[in-house]
Amino acid sequence: MALRELMTAGRLPTVPVFVDSPMALAALRVYRRAFRDGAPEIRPEIRASSADPFDPGELRLAATAEESARLNDPSSPCILLSASGMATGGRVVHHLAHLAPEPRNLILLPGFQVAGTRGRALLDGARTLKMYGGYVPVRAEVVGVDDLSAHADADGLLAWLKAAPAPSRTCYVVHGEPPASAALADRIDRELGWCAVQPRDAERVLV
């Protein structure tokens, strides 16, 4: 939808957009069905549209491994959406192996990239990536976009916790990098008065 808005506004050229991810294709089917059925969760301005809000103009779905492989050497400018857990697995890995060495390409990483993943290595300026038992040079431009993260921020998590029918005996903050986890545990303690802890790696708790 964001690409559709940018292309409609003329801020991006209209080029083919390939979706190459079984998970993303399954999610797209869910959203299209919700749009078709007029689900109340769909925003009114989207529901009022007569066109497919998920098609920027040239949307193409890569359903098979053969179609995916052909995208490793595109003959003209295009956008390739290949969802994965921060480039740790899935079809995006073989795309990176073929496309990362080319300076003409752009690798756009939407959302947070955890330390230790290929996505984070790319954001941190890695000039090589290890995959398939060897190393691949990174010559493509790499850009991160945090605005598309699906995770709630600290304010959102605090609001969700406040709505709980009763306080938790102990709140374990187990997600996020250590400084962020510690800061969230501190806010839960100060603002909610809950016992909040950041457990150590491999720590066991008996309940």
Automatic annotation (TrEMBL):
Transmembrane segments: none annotated. Residues 1-122 form the Beta-Casp domain. Keywords: Hydrolase. Coiled coil: none annotated. Gene3D superfamilies: 3.40.50.10890. It holds the Pfam family RMMBL. InterPro entries: Beta_Casp (IPR022712), MBL (IPR050698), RibonucZ/Hydroxyglut_hydro (IPR036866), RMMBL (IPR011108). PANTHER family: CLEAVAGE AND POLYADENYLATION SPECIFICITY FACTOR FAMILY MEMBER (PTHR11203), INTEGRATOR COMPLEX SUBUNIT 11 (PTHR11203:SF37). This is MBL fold metallo-hydrolase RNA specificity domain-containing protein.
